[in-house]
Design goal:
Length: 704
């Protein structure tokens, strides 16, 4: 709402600023001096006071105006000295007669202002929950009074505890105050504490594409980037494997392409899970002599989930046994249909080692980029995304930023997640210092208060004070969110989430011991879809449940189902941290029945598995009368004599059973802790080999 200064309003009304300030103070409108500002609404009321005349005082108006006119006419006829005296007398007479009118108008204006403020005070918006103290402040009441009201309603809450919206609404009604609950859209708008204006179409200019290279291990991702950039990146990396995310630029036909070198697709998912849309085009590298591999399938699923255009680079065509057609056939089986086969995905056969068809691949990237019509506005404050970040001993917090819109300059004040700062220096991909970075430019910046996370958004703001304030607000918001953790989809809560309309697509990741089981589970799950919920198996694979699976589940809000496989230790920890639901089964029908029952609201698992410990088999011994004894080293938790055990070999469950004997040296023991050796005998099972993992667990009943 526009504002008006006191001296401007006084000029408009034809009175002095001092008179207006006195009048405003009489109306309880606090102003300090002639430079103070008034809201437009207040200004309109004041103008109304000085200009409008009530009908009931029409007679008074005439009485006032006629003498004034007469005095003006007589003034024109007389000399200057007499003119001054008469004018003063006329003004005095006018002010005297207007006193009553002014008082009435003052009363009217004051009443209007009071009604307006009262109206504003009667309605407030709050969130899903509110702290008791905040509610007291909102209602302008003592905290003890609000707590007394809560106790009368049977709610025991201290001043720093939260109460739900319904309870707060009931309390507010007693004070004739209306509370309304903020919608999710309002909350989202508030959470985006920096307003990023939309660009006008005429200000947008073409920008270079940002390309991510993904694929299976040892299919030649880094070698392909090496061939594109004509640098020896591979020689600098430990064991020839990409250890970190890097960003670089190349020029082709006078046009720029930005390349992101990621360690597989984990970082791609990590950034997508935080809501970052960094990549414009994904290049899927597939070795012509190896074909489609598990990580290739994962990369396809990640690219599809992100909705990014795909270009297939069939690498190593110079090797004996290379078969491009076989690769295209295998890709079509996973929903990637090449253009020459009637699809819409471009495929280029290349050799990174010999540099074959590299230019053609780059031209295809530019072609896809042209079709995507990538544009940005360079003449505005910068907006970008963190590609990687680290804490350097000499330079402090260092972040690699990909500028997506606007222009970033040295000295700009920026906010990145919960960190803030003023940019001290910028270094480009060649290691040279630069002062400005336009759209689709990757630079390394210093001067941040803390290390941001990959995928955090960078926004340039007006000054350091604003940056610091926004960062502090975000820290406080994160603390609030941690108090009430975000609810992810799980089988236990599926039915209730279906009823409230929260869940419409149930994403599932399937992992099994053999490929046939994966397909069988997927087909069975597809048949369970209903009008309310569509079952979508977004990924399937063979082997143990890994961190990659949990990351994908977290980003896609999915449930992981393991059939005859177990999660790794790191995957279990990450799943617990991200609240991802992992279910493991030995019988395929149990998995189907559980999901079916969950959809009907009848799921009632009676027991929960509690992991106790893990032991690695270092040697095996045959003991007469006892059978095969596994010489083990406890690597995690502890092994209990009363626990059940599971024998895992290469991530595949071989056997489940009970412990027959647990010894340390020659003594029977009840438990063995981490870091100690022991002998474990499994009841009625002798197929134990060196390198196997024995997991000890117990079943606990779940209270529902």
């Amino acid at each position: 709402m526009s504002k008006l200064r006191v001296y401007q309003l006084a000029k408009e009304l034809g009175i002095s600023s001092k008179e207006l300030i006195e009048k405003l103070n009489d109306l309880s409108v606090v102003v300090n001096n002639h430079m103070s500002t008034l809201e437009k609404e207040e200004a309109n009321l004041i103008i109304e006071l000085f200009t409008e005349k009530p009908d009931e005082n029409a007679a008074s108006k005439n009485e006032v105006e006629e003498p004034a006119k007469a005095s003006v006419q007589s003034v024109e006829k007389n000399e200057a000295p007499r003119q001054d005296k008469k004018q003063k007398r006329g003004n005095k007479n006018k002010h005297g007669k207007n006193d009553k009118i002014t008082e009435k108008k003052d009363a009217m204006i004051e009443e209007k202002i009071n009604q307006q403020s009262k109206k504003e005070e009667q309605e407030f918006q709050i969130g899903e929950k509110i702290v008791v103290k905040d509610l007291a402040d909102l209602l302008k009441k003592n905290v003890s009074e609000i707590i007394t009201k809560l106790i009368q309603q049977g709610v025991m809450a201290a001043m720093n505890q939260e109460i739900d919206f319904e309870t707060a609404e009931g309390i507010a009604k007693g004070y004739e105050v209306v509370l309304t609950q903020k919608s999710e859209e309002t909350s989202e708008e508030e959470s985006s504490d920096i307003e990023i204006p939309e660009d006008d179409e005429k200000d947008l200019k073409p920008r270079p594409p940002v390309v991510t290279v993904m694929g299976h291990v040892d299919h030649g991702k880094t070698s392909l980037l090496d061939a594109i950039r004509k640098t020896k990146v591979t020689e600098r990396e430990a064991g020839g494997i990409t250890q970190h995310i890097g960003a670089s630029e190349v020029q082709i036909n006078g046009k720029k392409i930005v390349l992101l070198d990621t360690p597989g697709h984990e970082a791609f998912t990590a950034m997508r899970a935080r809501g970052a849309k960094v990549t414009d085009i994904a290049i899927l590298v597939v070795a012509a002599d190896d074909g489609v591999m598990p990580q290739t399938i994962e990369a396809i699923n990640h690219a599809k989930a992100a909705g990014v255009p795909l270009i297939v680079a069939i690498n190593k065509i110079d090797k004996p046994g290379a078969n491009s057609d076989r690769v295209k056939q295998e890709l079509s089986e996973h929903g990637v249909l090449i253009e020459e086969w009637g699809g819409d995905v471009i495929a280029v056969a290349v050799s990174a080692l010999q540099g074959l068809n590299i230019d053609e691949l780059l031209e295809m990237i530019l072609l896809v980029a042209e079709m995507e019509e990538l544009k940005a506005n360079p003449n505005r404050r910068a907006v970008g995304t963190v590609v990687e970040a680290e804490l350097d001993k000499g330079r402090g917090a260092v972040a690699t930023i990909l500028v997506q819109n606007g222009t970033l300059k040295v000295g700009d004040s920026v906010v990145i997640g919960t960190s803030h700062g003023r940019i001290r220096a910028m270094v480009n991909d060649k290691g040279k210092r630069v002062k400005i970075a336009g759209p689709s430019t990757a630079v390394e910046i210093t001067g941040l208060s803390e290390v941001p996370e990959a995928g955090d958004q960078l926004v340039a703001v007006a000054d350091d004070k604003q940056a610091r304030t926004i960062a502090e607000q975000r820290v406080n918001r994160i603390k609030e969110q941690q108090l009430r953790a975000t609810q992810r989809v799980s089988l236990d809560a599926l039915y209730s989430q279906m009823q409230t309309g929260e869940i419409k697509d149930l994403n599932i990741i399937v992992k099994a011991d053999v490929q046939g089981s994966v397909q069988a589970v997927k087909q069975s799950l597809n048949k369970l879809s209903t009008d309310k919920v569509v079952i979508k198996p977004i990924h399937g694979g063979v082997g143990a449940i890994t961190e990659t699976d949990v990351s994908l589940a977290s980003a896609s809000n999915a449930i992981i189902i393991g059939f005859n496989v177990r999660p790794t230790s790191n995957a279990s920890s990450l799943a617990e941290k991200e609240n991802v639901d992992i279910r493991t089964y030995r019988v395929i029908y149990n998995a189907i029945e559980d999901i079916e029952a969950a959809m009907k609201g009848m799921l009632d698992p009676e027991y929960k598995e509690v992991q106790l410990g893990k032991a690695e088999v270092r040697a095996t011994f045959k003991v007469p009368g006892l059978g095969l004894i596994a010489g083990c080293y406890v690597i995690e938790g502890k092994i209990l004599r009363s626990a059940k055990v599971r024998l895992v070999r290469d991530g595949i469950v071989i056997h489940e059973g009970a412990i027959g004997s647990l010894k340390r040296f020659k003594d029977d023991v009840r438990e063995v802790a981490t870091g100690y050796e022991c002998g474990i005998g499994i009841d009625n099972f002798n197929d134990v080999k060196e390198g196997d993992i024995i997991e000890a667990f117990k079943m606990e009943e779940i209270e529902r």
